[in-house]
Design brief:
This protein has 171 residues and is an all-alpha fold. The chain is 78% helix and 0% strand. The chain has helices spanning 2-19, 25-45, 55-75, 80-89, 98-113, 116-127, 132-139, 144-170.
Length: 171
């Protein structure tokens, strides 16, 4: 594996710099190293028995998907405000600010209204930081896309409940 690492490292870093300019050099280096490890793991475990492409193509595909997933994680802006509230929900060091406390209370109330599945998905995603494939496996969904759709619906329900509570508090 060492020769694969040395042979393709610089080329991978150049290729990813060109195609994924938003990824810094450290991320690209980390992703390459993880990709080589995954290639090795796949070969040793027997999941990879023959190549239908070159080693380079296989390695770069692993890296491409890893870097895309990492950039998606970093750039996740959908429901950003609500996700921060959720992450802070169990935080021991809660802000003393009255608005923050009110938001936490609204969040607790809104979460109580959600279905058990929604509660579980949001817990797995935001507290335990599971990826969609892991959530699909845990929740017995067909695939990661199904889990992603369900999480999106759950977030919409949570936001809707939070908005209802905000309107109630205003009147």
């Amino acid at each position: 594996m060492y020769w694969i690492y040395r042979t393709y490292r610089n080329e991978f870093l150049s290729w990813t710099a060109k195609h994924f300019s938003q990824a810094d050099r450290e991320l690209r280096k980390d992703v390459f190293q993880e990709s080589v490890i995954e290639l090795h793991t796949n070969a040793v475990s027997g999941r990879l028995t023959e190549f239908t492409s070159s080693i380079k193509t296989y390695l770069f595909q692993i890296g491409k998907f890893k870097i895309i997933n990492e950039l998606k994680k970093r750039d996740r802006i959908t429901y950003q405000d609500q996700s921060e509230l959720i992450k802070d929900h169990n935080s021991a060091a809660m802000d003393d600010d009255q608005e923050s406390e009110e938001n936490q209370e609204k969040l607790k109330t809104a979460i109580k209204v959600l279905s058990p599945d929604c509660k579980k998905i949001l817990e797995l995603f935001y507290f335990k930081e599971y990826d969609m494939e892991s959530i699909a496996r845990d929740m017995y969904y067909k695939n990661a896309d199904t889990a992603k759709s369900k999480k999106s619906l759950c977030m919409k329900c949570l936001i809707k409940e939070m908005n209802k509570l905000s309107k109630l508090m205003v009147f």
